[in-house]
Amino acid sequence: MVRLPQPRLGRSALTLLACLAAACGLLLPLAAQADPAALRARYEQLAPQLRNSDYGQPLHIASREDGDTLHGEVHALLEHPFERVRDALRDPTNWCDILILPFNIKYCHAVRTPDGPGLLVRIGRRYDQPLDQSYRLLFDFRGVAASQDYFEARLAAPDGPVGTRDYHIVVSAIPVSQGRSFLRLNYSYGSGFAGRLAMQAYLATAGADKVGFTREQDAGNGAALIGGVRGAVERNVMRYYLAIDAFLDSLSAPRGERAERRIQSWFNATERYPRQLREMDRTTYVEMKRMEQERQQTLLQ
Questions:
Q1: Per-residue DSSP letter, 58
Q2: Entry pTM
Q3: Exposed, middle or buried by CB within 10 Å (0-12, 13-18, 19+), for 90?
Q4: How far apart are CA 179 and CA 226, in angstroms?
Q5: Which terminus, N or C, of the chain has the lesser number of Cβ atoms within 10 Å?
Q6: Which own/partner contact pairs does 134-137 have at CB distance under 8 Å and 24+ positions apart?
């Protein structure tokens, strides 16, 4: 296992927490998700909304705040056959190629934990950030199902930085007509007292004008885009979804061109939603990700 020192928390923790938080309709509890019949019923329920999506592609986004826990969820109709989705997402190593795409993920390495496969992830913020100034998350990786008609995998990390905890990423998929797949991505995490204070400070300063994707009724302004902590978790779950889609799309390219294609595709996808997802210009993002991917491969050797 690659061992990297942990940083001390500083003022950058406020911005970092927004990156972590950034993972309308009812969200299903995690315990109830290992159920292909339920996912197919959800697909049939959402089919009209997917056909008439406001997002320029067949997507449905939801979020909720449940006590100290935030949940974000994406349902999407993918233009990828189910076999490609299942075979790609069942491999922990492929998840590092997915997770490295969002701007705040600085490093990912598939490892062995005492309980089985895992992912060592480093989260940061700044361009050209040294790894010893980033924050560590160790995810357990669990393949729940990989059959002919249903796939599910779960990532879970009990502890995170800045008073956060209980990170969960759950992805499930089923085949649908014409070589497409229906995918559900659920992202959630819990926050303690320190985490809540840091998030409140961020939302009062740098994050004051940031919004999510869903709308909430406001008597004064009509249906406004949601902000606050729910807006933050919607932004992050959308980043993860776009990373999955970019990775799947890259599989049709020659192997030597896939990393660059993923980088360009992810940035292009985020630019469809600049108000929510733009954090830097293309040149800065591409140069940063090329460097981080090269560093990741060097550390793995």
A1: S
A2: 0.86
A3: middle
A4: 34
A5: C
A6: 134/4, 134/7, 134/106, 134/107, 135/6, 135/7, 135/16, 135/160, 135/161, 135/162, 136/4, 136/6, 136/161, 137/161, 137/167
Helix (H) or strand (E) segment spanning residue 164: strand 164-176
Which of 178, 175, 170 has the alpha carbon at shortest distance from 148?
Answer: 175
Handedness of CA 147, 188, 28, 26 (dihedral sign): negative
pLDDT in tens, 133-173: 888 999 999 999 999 999 999 999 998 877 788 999 999 99
Cα separation, 142 vs 3, whole angstroms:
22
At 263, which amino acid appears?
Answer: I
Alpha-helical (H) ranges within the chain are 12-21, 36-51, 82-89, 92-99, 193-204, 228-250, 258-270, 274-277, 282-300
